[in-house]
Amino acid sequence: MPRRKTSVKKTRSDRKKHAQNLKIKQQLKKVIKQFLGLIAAKNTAEAKKLLSNVFSQLDKAAKKRTIHPATANRRKSRLMKRLAKSA
């Protein structure tokens, strides 16, 4: 455990930030899973509607640096490819 006041405060803020990041990542996984489920069910119309939400979530996570911006772009590209392949 840290002893200095600043270290204790940093540990506390790190814990809060970690919890926020986990929440963002879990929401992201959930939305992507829904999207992939729609593609697997050959429901492309619904998948296209959900795609903008998925992109929005990815961009927000990248903006907050929860995930790397290049990772967000790569995932968006791969999801678009899957959608195009299923249509």
What does this structure look like?
This protein has one domain: Ribosomal protein S20 (Methane Monooxygenase Hydroxylase, Chain G, domain 1, Up-down Bundle), CATH 1.20.58.110. With 87 residues, the protein is an all-alpha fold. It contains three helices and no strands. 8% of the residues are buried. The chain is elongated. The longest helix has 36 residues, at 5-40. The protein has helices at 5-40, 44-63, 69-86. Helix 1 runs antiparallel to helix 2 (44-63) and helix 2 (44-63) packs antiparallel against helix 3. It starts with a helix and ends with a helix.
Q: What's this, in brief?
A:
By secondary structure, the chain is an all-alpha fold. Helix content is 85%, strand content 0%.
CATH architecture label = Up-down Bundle
Spans of at least 5 consecutive residues with low confidence: none
Count of the separate structural domains: 1
Compressed to H and E, one letter per element, the order equals: HHH
Please report which band the strand proportion falls in: under 5%, 5-15%, 15-25%, 25-35%, 35-45% or over 45%: under 5%
**Distance between the amino and carboxyl termini:** 55 Å
- What structural class should be given to the helix and strand makeup? mainly alpha
- The fourth-level CATH homologous superfamily is Ribosomal protein S20
